[in-house]
Amino acid sequence: MALLDVKNLKVNYDRIEAIKGIDLSVKEDDRCISIVGSNGAGKSTLVNAITGLLDYRGDILFKGERLNGLPTPKIVKMGIVQCPERRHLFDYMSVKENLLLGTYNLGKERFIDLDTVYDLFPRLKDREKQQACTLSGGEAQMVAVGRALLANPKLLILDEPTLGLAPIVRNHLAEALEKIKEHNVKILLVEQNVKWSFDLSEYVYVLREGKISKSGSRSELKFDEEIKRHFLGV
């Protein structure tokens, strides 16, 4: 059984069809799956549908259970957590307060706690009393990922996590994501930065104009001439 199954998903904005019948899956033994594509391809629309933020047609199943019509808090409790594009931190709350917001929907049982987040992102421990508005872009992204982890995800959806980050910060984030996989958290990575995504993922879906144009393992797609030309700069 797939962890996540998306079947013939369609999303409209008024009369414009933004997602045009997508099928994709995340299997139980997958560690990181990527959805890559240029700006405007429909990546954020897709993940907002999965997390209950948009209406859609088609079916989305998580561990065999249909998500259609479920509110976002219920989907979070089931184990799908989105770390949104542009982070959406509360600027005048502290780093620690922003992180702990990830726990509001949980009971006592959790497998990632605040100490685990600080182990992944040691800089946040040093800055836990700082207001979020004083952080760099990279630090803010660490808080956003840490907050999502504290919501106890089985599937962590990262929407454009490298947006606006310097190369060295992207490298630090990649190292943290490799460690997150060791906590048995599956990652669905949604990115414009295809090369960075390829380095982290076992399987890749290429989204173009609301459709899956290609899909395959990293080893298969990295030799694809269209992928190399349009996305990898080769």
Report what the structure shows.
With 234 residues, the protein is α/β, with parallel strands linked by helices. It has a single domain (2-230), classed as Rossmann fold (3-Layer(aba) Sandwich), CATH 3.40.50. 33% of the residues lie in helices and 28% in strands. It has helices at residues 43-50, 72-78, 95-100, 114-120, 122-126, 137-149, 167-181, 194-200, 218-221, 225-230; strands spanning 2-13, 16-27, 32-36, 57-62, 65-66, 80-83, 155-159, 186-191, 203-208, 211-217. A 6-stranded mixed beta sheet has the order 6-7-8-3-9-10, sandwiched between helices. Strand 7 (155-159), helix 7 and strand 8 form a beta-alpha-beta unit.
